[in-house]
Amino acid sequence: MISVRFRLLLAGLLFLPLISFSQVTPPDFLCVSSDTLFWNAPDNDCGDFIAVNIFSSDNPSGPFAILDRISDPGVTFYEDGRPGQWYYYLTSEYNCPDAVIPSDTLDNRAPSATRIIRATVEGDNVRLLWEQNTDPETVGYVIYRSTAQGTLPIDTVFGALEYLDQSADPTGGGETYNVVALDACGNQGDFDVSHTTIHLEVTPDFCAQHLQLTWSNYEGWQNGRANNQVWLGIDGGDIAFEHNVGADDTLAYLLRIMDDIEYCLQIRAEESETGVISTSNTICLVTDVLRPLETLGIRNVTVNRDNTVEVIWNYDSDADVTQLGINRGSDENSLDTLQNDLLSGATTDTSTFVDQQADVQNQAYFYQLHATDQCDTSQISNVMSTMHLDISSGTGGENQLQWTTPFMPGRIIQRYTVCRVLGGVETSLAQFDTTTQGIISYTDVIDPSMESDEICYVIKATHTNLGGEDPLVSTSNYSCIEQKVEMYVPNAFVPGGVNNIFKPEIVFQNSIREYTMSIFNRWGGKVFESKNPDLGWDGRQNGELLPVGVYMYVIMLEQAEGESEHVSGTVTLIR
Length: 575
Prior knowledge:
single chain; mainly beta; Immunoglobulin-like; 6 domains; five-stranded antiparallel β-sheet; 1 helix; about 0% helix
């Protein structure tokens, strides 16, 4: 640095005649320690050495007066015992006409304070940056760090304005630093404001599924903090800006985190006005938080051929669930626990439960899932029901089918298919599109030639989600019925003629459980009895043809469903 005194000398030279000459270099003014000046001897070869001249002033702007002349070239120090603050510069005096140049101007005080720009964490280290100390006697800097034993020097830096502290422990807490200027005499400057790094701690909350960030704020900037910033990297990705928080905040949350994911977090502080950034320690952790049950829903409820009910449902098989069960009831509002131990069988996202206790022939059933996670949070699924099919047999071979609409919120019934099952063979009778709620019916007319012990029916409802996708089929109970017996009794017959046997014409004879036909004469005597619908009366008694006349018959039969019928009347025997 060129001293004030030297600038004044140069200004005066502007008014001298332009003469070519060299320069007499001054002594290398090292420092002032207490009241002693130190320098290195000058090296000039233009003439003989005469003296080192010492100038002083109590004002840095002068005027400067000569304090002393040191004529011994081997002497490189001078003690000034005067009290107070003084400013000095040196010149070299040689026996030559060359221009004399003064040294830097130094004072007898220690170097001024050095301002730190920032202290920032880099991995496990801390990097310091500071402003250059403008005092001309400054030759280096001493790095101080606060420890449990006090604020201690840890290193000295020459020729640089930054330092990487590799012995720091920024993960254990904030590290506090001072940088102090050093002159050639070993004098250290004043301490400026300490700077303390940001220290971050991250705590996961298993049940709340968030990361709690707490930190100690950066301290030391003369302009204060403009803000704090949360920076985030996920699963090895680059750490990037996440969001700002207040300059005085020391608490933030990262919400809705997922389990078994690596999150890397930093806090960065920004200085007001300058925009200088300081970074905290980086914390990377693989989270162990609740895997929530995000999916829990019944997709389909259907009745199997063996009268069991199959419930197909979806859930997150990797969720942290401690209890999973199923409820059942007669309507959507009256559901009781049916079973609580579904977890052992639910190893995939789509699972099936089979209800073997349902009485599907008599009613529809409503089902709902319930679950509890490791944080005791309960959750229930949608409700879905079976269809209940009921059949009654009417006259003329008509079977009346009625069924309930399945309860399926969130699903759309696209169509119903009515199927008849005869001899194990399933035949589609009708198919129609409907979204009608309540009881739906269909009539099936049976051909009398279809002799069968029983006829069964099943209703199939095809349904989709609200978007018309995921088609599934819900099947009702398989309902079977034996047809109602119908009889046609003739009122006359001709033994030996065309109509020579008296017996009723029976439709759906296979539906008869018991049968008795008795014939009586006009005096009430029984002349014939048969328990076989195929065995009729030929007009004889004990092998003898009975006389022409009117006879009374009584027919008793029991229908397949247990209903008994008695039919009586008269028949005329004709020859």
